[in-house]
Known about the structure:
Elements (H helix, E strand, L loop, with lengths): L9 H9 L6 H15 L11 H14 L3 E5 L5 H9 L5 E6 L2 H13 L6 E5 L2 H6 L7 E6 L6 H9 L2 E10 L13 H14 L4 E6 L5 E6 L1
Parallel strand pairs: 1-2, 1-4, 2-3, 4-5
Antiparallel strand pairs: 5-7, 6-7
Helix pairs in contact: 3-4
Amino acid sequence: MTPRSFLLTAELADYVRASSERPDDVAADLIAETAAMAERGEVPGTMQIAPEQGVFMQLLARALMARQAIEIGTFTGYSALCIARGLAEDGSLLCLDRNAEWTAVARRFWERAGLADRIELRLGDALTTLRGLPAVETFDLAFIDADKTGYAAYVEELYDRMTPNGVVLLDNTLWSGRVLDPRAEDDHALVALNAALATDPRWETVLLPLGDGLTMLRKR
């Protein structure tokens, strides 16, 4: 099943996709292969972003004229595919993930899309890798879609590494509505993060009801 923004009915999701730029054959095949893997129990079925979110992220990268981007949490590579396609001709995307099996799928589709030369994948602990990067203004765009309890630390480490007016996107910040009734550790972590970001003077912040909640931060 194609992922959709969780606040939409199936019928509205179909309408949203029909009224937006359609995924090409490479993106559509990646979405379908990830869905098939989920049906076989090889990957979690809730980790693929919705196609409309992918189109939004690609459009945003283009609108920002982003050259350098970073992604924390790559899964099977659909979000990276969208971001990389939106980058400037000389742009590059750094992906941080720890799962070699899932990202092998990503590498195959990046190659098919002709993007392998502009995407670098580093496997290992993302926070350790991030802290090892020079603390200089480098990235125009960042996307975080990894362990929810680690989001606050990722945002903190990214701040010095984002260019002025750089944009950070955080996925799953509505967490299927569980932010209204937090019970698990992930729930509480996201509630605390959402509250902190809304009043953090370093960022201009908006939480969009797209996908499973997509928070956008602009570095002031």
